[in-house]
Amino acid sequence: MKKLLFLLLIFLSCYESEIVIEAPVRTTITIFPFPENEVVSNTTTTTNTTKPFKNSAREATERREKERENFDKAWQEYMKEDIVLSDYEKEVNKKFRELWSWKGSKWEAEKEKFYEIHINGVSCRRIWNSMGAAILDQNHPLNNLLDNEAPFYRRYRSHHYRCFLTEEQLKQPELVKQTDYLFGTPFYYQETWWIFQSISSEISVWDLINCKDPCSHPYYTFATRVAIDDNEELVLFMEGFFN
Hints:
This protein is an alpha+beta fold. It has five helices and seven strands, in the order H-H-H-E-E-E-E-H-E-E-E-H. The chain has helices at about 1-15, 55-80, 85-100, 175, 230-240; strands at about 115-120, 120-125, 135, 155-165, 180-190, 190-200, 220-225.
């Protein structure tokens, strides 16, 4: 037994090694208390920066209406004073309009009364198509004879004559500047026959008016009153009217 114990001691001594014991590492965590009533949250708050949806179509419509409103106001301020017809002139124009109204085929304009008139020597002939229209710088006096005419249409007239320059007239710059349509019904005033003609192509409507922004218009063109040259048919009409 003693011999066995002796052998065991020898065996252990052969495998003896130094054992190092390190001091433990102490970690101290200090917790600071939050201020009273402070709430700590890890919730992420996202701010929505998307603008509310707007009806762009409606906005566009409202803008166009405002542009038109501003233009109409500016144009009315620019317009000339109304033409006031005497009782005699009213009677002449009433009879004239009855004869002047279109009665035949649209393909035979030359058969209509007062088919051709002249403005500053330029021949202007009646046309059936009256889709083109102009804003007048003066209310048309014959509209006063129509009880159901809206105020706006007193200054809005379709074209009824188209003018044609001869080769010789094409050489005259002042005539070329005038566009080739006449607007509204001819009328008698102060011993003269009148009609409205497009303003010169050199004149910009924006130079004529002072329009508040936003401002725009959808109109074809603009027209002013011009005298009709002496006309045999009109002379005969007046002679027949007196008789």
